[in-house]
Amino acid sequence: MTSVPPRRKGSAGRRMVPPLRSIRGRYAVTTAVVSMAVLIVVGLVIDVAVRYKIRSEILFQAERTAARWSAAVRNGGAPRPIPATRDVDLIQLVDLHGRVLDASPQAADLPAVSRFRPPAYDRLQPRIECPRGRCLILMANRVSPAADAPTVFAGTLEPSVLATGDLEYLTAVAAVLVTVTVAWMTWWAVGRTLRPVAVIRERIAEITVSDLSLRVPVPAGDDEIAMLARTANRTLARLDAEVERQRRFSSTLSHELRTPITGLRTSLEEAILYPGDVDPRETVRGALTVTGRLEAIVDDLLAFARLAVDHGQREAIDLGALVTEEAASPGRVPVRVHAVPGVRVHGSRIRLIRLVDNLLGNARRHAESGVVVTLEPVGDRAVLSVLDDGPGIAPADRERVFERFVRLDDGRRRDPGGSGLGLALSREIAHDHAGTLCVEDSPGGALFVLRLPLLDGPAAGGVRAS
């Protein structure tokens, strides 16, 4: 049986991407296409310009030569044969009937280079003649306006760079070389730019939920890739902290559930094993107490789960009316409410009722004689204060009380069946409504302060924040 080699950790992150589907491939192809399009236009412009320049230069020299020998013919001083120049070697004097009367040595044995005859009113005109495949660039100069005046033709063969298409070939080769060079440079530059991204991708492929301690390397500089790496590291740090918090929560939850279940099982086993020594009513009463605690824990856990996946139906809520209604429910100590009317927030009524009930229930458990609830707008926030006259909370424990399953000694004594999740759930609800919940200083007792955004913004008649 052939053994399958183990899959290397992070191999999925190093999967090869087809060149044309990669970013550097797409950039290289796009750059090559754009460069080729631009170079084609530039090449056409250069080709036209070079052709025009060469022909213009030849025609300029031919015009000077034709004008010179035309004047010589008019004055009767044209030599035989007509001497050629370096730039103009084909010179002919052609009569009305197309006969060559005089010519330069290179054109002496040739028939008339052109049978064109300029009109009397425009005696100097350029011509392009192609008698035998190779074109001639000529300047025709009629000697005089007379009807029988001969014509001087001066010019030369079209240069090979124009006649054979060598200029176009050279331009095309140069365009291809430039395009290839630009595409290669783009491929190299993009690859060098994206090299840190490949390293980041490989490192992220090595990160698992069981180990979030790894961090991606941060390249030097403050460009977009460095910012991406820093953001990824901050996200990993938050995930690491959240996973660690969930681990602690799971450990604490298992302990909180195991303890009452173990006690319940022990009491029930004692009732079965020693029926004569155990009071059945006490056993049932104790079982109900433990069941109530388990039910409270499960209810709070379900509330946490619903809070994570469902934000509830949001509506405009008169927070003062809600607090007044919840404070009216009977309790161990009275609750006095001082609420400014018209303080409205936007949120889930069911969850805000749960939050207010948790704060009032906690205050009633710890109060000696009463609870004072104050609601007022401060700036753009609705501020709800719940103050009891109990022993209060030490500054060192003011954040701990919002942790899950944390119960102070006084809380355990006053409410043995509590779940330790009420205040943690209340803070989660406050955060879900873009608010805050904290414990602040007070002359006596514990002061819980809830701040939520006002529905209508800053209140005109509200209390200004100091």
UniProtKB/TrEMBL annotation:
<dbReference type="InterPro" id="IPR004358">
    <property type="entry name" value="Sig_transdc_His_kin-like_C"/>
</dbReference>
<dbReference type="InterPro" id="IPR005467">
    <property type="entry name" value="His_kinase_dom"/>
</dbReference>
<feature type="transmembrane region" description="Helical">
    <location>
        <begin position="169"/>
        <end position="190"/>
    </location>
</feature>
<dbReference type="Pfam" id="PF00672">
    <property type="entry name" value="HAMP"/>
</dbReference>
<dbReference type="InterPro" id="IPR003661">
    <property type="entry name" value="HisK_dim/P_dom"/>
</dbReference>
<keyword id="KW-0808">Transferase</keyword>
<feature type="domain" description="Histidine kinase">
    <location>
        <begin position="252"/>
        <end position="456"/>
    </location>
</feature>
<dbReference type="InterPro" id="IPR036097">
    <property type="entry name" value="HisK_dim/P_sf"/>
</dbReference>
<keyword id="KW-0418">Kinase</keyword>
<keyword id="KW-1133">Transmembrane helix</keyword>
<dbReference type="GO" id="GO:0000155">
    <property type="term" value="F:phosphorelay sensor kinase activity"/>
</dbReference>
<feature type="transmembrane region" description="Helical">
    <location>
        <begin position="27"/>
        <end position="50"/>
    </location>
</feature>
<keyword id="KW-0902">Two-component regulatory system</keyword>
<protein>
    <recommendedName>
        <fullName>histidine kinase</fullName>
        <ecNumber>2.7.13.3</ecNumber>
    </recommendedName>
</protein>
<dbReference type="InterPro" id="IPR003660">
    <property type="entry name" value="HAMP_dom"/>
</dbReference>
<dbReference type="InterPro" id="IPR036890">
    <property type="entry name" value="HATPase_C_sf"/>
</dbReference>
<dbReference type="GO" id="GO:0005886">
    <property type="term" value="C:plasma membrane"/>
</dbReference>
<dbReference type="InterPro" id="IPR003594">
    <property type="entry name" value="HATPase_dom"/>
</dbReference>
<keyword id="KW-0472">Membrane</keyword>
<dbReference type="InterPro" id="IPR050428">
    <property type="entry name" value="TCS_sensor_his_kinase"/>
</dbReference>
<keyword id="KW-0597">Phosphoprotein</keyword>
<keyword id="KW-0812">Transmembrane</keyword>
<dbReference type="Pfam" id="PF02518">
    <property type="entry name" value="HATPase_c"/>
</dbReference>
<dbReference type="Pfam" id="PF00512">
    <property type="entry name" value="HisKA"/>
</dbReference>
<feature type="domain" description="HAMP">
    <location>
        <begin position="191"/>
        <end position="244"/>
    </location>
</feature>
